Amino acid sequence: MDIKKEIAELNQELIDLRRDFHKHPELGFEEFRTSEIIANYLKECNLEVKNIAKTGVVGLLKGSEPGFTIMLRADIDALPVQEKNDISYKSIYEGKMHACGHDGHTAMLLVAAKVLSKHRNEIKGNIKFIFQPNEEDAGAEIMINEGVLENPKVDAALGLHLWSPIESGKIGIGNGPIMASSHYFKLTIKGKGGHGGAPHLSIDPINCGMHVMQAVQAIQTREVDALAPTIITFCKLQAGSSPIIIPEQLEVEGSIRCLHEGFEEVKQRFERIIRCTCEAHQAEYALEIKCGNILLNNDTIMAERVKVVAMEVVGPRNITQSNINVMLGEDFAEFAARVPSAFYFLGVGNKEKNTNYPHHHPFFNIDEDVLPIGVEMHIRGALEYLNRK
Ligand SMILES: [Zn+2]
Ligand SMILES: [Zn+2]
């Protein structure tokens, strides 16, 4: 099987699919159009197709002989971003855009499924192609709860993200923790309102809150090893209504991100500093913390397998370890926590083509010339796993 040639023959189809998804972006759990196109495409490839998790789709390719099952995952959702690109396939939906590359993910995995489906007779075991809705807000867990890892039981998983911080055509792969856990918090500091000119008669929640926001920043380095990346950011503050009235309370929201296993410890320190600072200021507080994403940990053996495949597809000079550890979350982590998995990046950053904007930016776009590389990575990744095991 001449993989490169077969992919090249489908190059126009690959680009057309991607541009069509780009033009019609749908937000998490609203990917009805996208999901229908995916399901029809997979049916035409003679795969067993199932809808799952509202707008998710699973296609199962059974090889000619029994064996292990590998899962390949693409996420299909868009973002609430107004596109500013001036391109023929610009989003036609107001305020919605594929600003993370998931349009490319969907197209690449569909074409990979088509190529692999023609070689059913050479495949031992099964390949599960999963098209996940709502990556930007926890769609993976729902797919798992609805049984995506069962029937047949998934033995390993691979996920690929197009990545603008990496130069076009390079593959970024690493072992261990690669994308951070993220937890969102809401902190309410309760004081006692009063006159701005007589603060000694009130309990000023804003003054207390400022001390809290400063103090918790010392957790990284002073309480957690500087080599265990930890970020605490405050992104929303709400208090007061007038320049002469001390408000009753201050509400702040933000996130805690850890690229290490020690979130519970960070959380305890965070709470302790809030408790003690509030006590010092005679204020009371309420704290809610919820999990956004768990830590994405790559399995060492699976990551090695991706490296072997990448050597073949792009060559050793185009494999990079830079820009692959990020403090952003990725819900592929839910699969990686349950089966040996690797998540890797394919660079789309090219200054000349204006494809080096950050993800989620209104000018975000991808270098389409790398899409065939992603297709080949999917195909060889699956074959390498099934043949070697
Ligand atoms: Zn994103
Ligand atoms: Zn993404």
Derived from helix and strand composition plus strand pairing, the structural class reads alpha/beta
In N-to-C order, the SSE pattern is: HHHEEEHEHEEEEEHHEEEHEEHEHEH
- The rounded Rg comes to 24 Å
User: How much β-strand is present in the residues?
Assistant: 25-35%
Task: Provide the number of structural domains.
Answer: 2
User: What low-confidence regions span 5 or more consecutive residues with pLDDT below 50?
Assistant: none
Number of strands: 16
Q: Name the shape in a single word.
A: elongated
Count of discrete alpha- or pi-helical segments spanning 4 or more residues: 11
Helical residue percent band: 25-40%
CATH architecture of the largest domain: 3-Layer(aba) Sandwich
Cofactor: Mn(2+)
Binding site for Mn(2+): 100, 102, 136, 161, 360
Domain Peptidase M20 dimerisation: 183-274
Organism: Alkaliphilus peptidifermentans DSM 18978
List the helices and strands and how they pair.
Blueprint: H1 3-9, H2 11-23, H3 32-44, E1 48-52, E2 56-62, E3 65-75, H4 102-117, E4 124-132, H5 140-145, E5 156-167, E6 171-172, E7 176-179, E8 181-190, E9 194-195, H6 205-215, H7 219-223, E10 230-239, E11 245-246, E12 249-258, H8 263-280, E13 284-293, E14 296-298, H9 300-314, E15 319-320, H10 333-336, E16 341-349, H11 371-388
Parallel strand pairs: 3-4, 3-5, 5-16, 6-15
Antiparallel strand pairs: 1-2, 2-4, 6-16, 7-14, 8-12, 8-13, 9-11, 10-12
One zinc ion (ZN) is lined by residues 100, 136, 359-360.
InterPro entries: Amidohydrolase (IPR017439), Bact_exopeptidase_dim_dom (IPR036264), Peptidase_M20 (IPR002933), Peptidase_M20_dimer (IPR011650)
Binding site for Mn(2+): 100, 102, 136, 161, 360
Pfam family, one: M20_dimer
